[in-house]
Amino acid sequence: MCPTAGELQNKLRLDTTKYDQLEVGHAVTEDYWDELRECAKIHNPMYSAVGLDDYYIISDLVKDPLLSAVVRRKFHAWPCLPQPRPGQSVFYYNHLTDKIINLWVLPKAATMAYISELSAVSKFYLSMKEWSDAFFDQRFWGFIKSQNTETLLTDREFFALHGDKFAKFLQDQGSSLDTEPLDDGKISFNEIVDTVKAVQQQ
Fold it and tell me: Domain locations in the chain?
């Protein structure tokens, strides 16, 4: 039987081993491209049905509301360039060529601010600094477009090109991304494996 996320977090809390951050990063992203392709496989019929051959695959890093040490990756698709946000990676995908192109990777907000304030960074972080600088300078989409040869559409450009034809489609896409709020009344304490931060409400 597989351990729960809470059990794994408790095990990690007791682990005093020092890990190499790059090794951890490589391990975490080992199946990343498989996840991107799985997301494309799910969304291809949906986008093909409305006549779109290309769209964007978005990967967001989301903290678990109950387990402080757990960060989840959420993959979804969007027909135009999404609004940039910390903890986000965005890829251009073409259904006909099955080509995935990385457009940007933004770290968490504190890291974005830190590397943007630096006058120079190592080659490894150069692209991330450029993306972060463009984000804070409010020239993000223009900078992303200058880095790529594909026709990348913002939401306004998408609507100008496709009109109201996709209004309901976009609305449905937005609704599918909404997650149900956590209802504390539906969770009993014996269901929470990690209760370090659980506070009983009166």
Answer: 19-176
